[in-house]
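Q: I have 190 residues here and want to know how they pack in 3D. Can you give me a structure?
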Amino acid sequence: MNTKSIMIVGVGGQGTLLASRILGNLAMEKGYQVKVSEVHGMSQRGGSVVTYVKYGEVVHSPVICQGEADIIISFEELEALRWLPYLKKGGKLITNVQQIMPMPVIIGAAEYPADILETLSKENVDLVSVNALEIAESILNSKVTNVVLLGVLAKYLEFDKQDWVDAVLSTVPEKFKEANEKAFLAGYEQ
């Protein structure tokens, strides 16, 4: 198998690190070599967070350079636009339609870009947009938006649905297992 390169991008507090841990654990459980790298930035202040997950028979580096990502999962629209140059031509971009205003927008020093989804749809990518926050809120837990997005991702990777569920359940704390399983399955049905 060729190495699969996946970027998980969002802002601090959205659960990108947990999502990368679930994916990494699943790939290791299935016998792949896995490398994960996290870039936090100003994550505790709502800043950009990106995680690289690479897996395959042999993985030399966790770093994904511009034009190399097979898939980007974005937890927020602006982050999808920000990290788009890292997606290979024809790659898959899965994005949550949520918009989180960055500090420059909040203080009036900048404007949130209009029509991001329309801009993304004009690029040479396979775009999948989903309202993962709304789905998570229907489960009564907005904090599982990240796992909803993993459910969407799962349909495009080689792992079985039950293997994904097992990876989710073995990674999250006991008291959050039920909500995360529901979130994954809801995302998978999208």
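Q: Anything worth noting?
A: The first helix runs from residue 16 to 29. The beta strands are 4-11, 33-39, 48-56, 69-74, 87-96, 126-130.
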